[in-house]
Amino acid sequence: MFKLLAFATSVVAFTKPLATRSPVAPLQAVELANGAVSFDRVCREWRCKYSGDKVTSESLEACCGVLAEYLPEIKKMEGVTVNRLICGGCLDFKVMVTQPLEGYGPWEEAGHPPEADFIAKLKAIDGVSQVETQTITNMVV
Hints:
The chain has 141 residues and is an alpha+beta fold. It has 4 helices and 6 strands.
């Protein structure tokens, strides 16, 4: 079960088999839903819930501090875009690290650095809960 879940969340779940693509060519857009949608960018989302009022929340402030600490390292990746999302109603803090499909595989194989350290720091913040990660597609439409 866990192997299947790991496979489903892997970029491999979104890419064409090696036998159907050239090993030297960049990865082409991958089609989903019988061709109704396609993507060529993959996102790793890091998210948690913060506590308190959005205007004065110390846990949200600390989450933003963790992002500020790691942002220079994250932005060194070629072709990466980083989005920060904050919801004052449901108390979400999210970071979306998106990169071209061809660059995602090596980053995934390396364990999405600096994800482990980033997540550990979020978990250590008082008032932060539900720290999670997810791999998704992220396309401008």
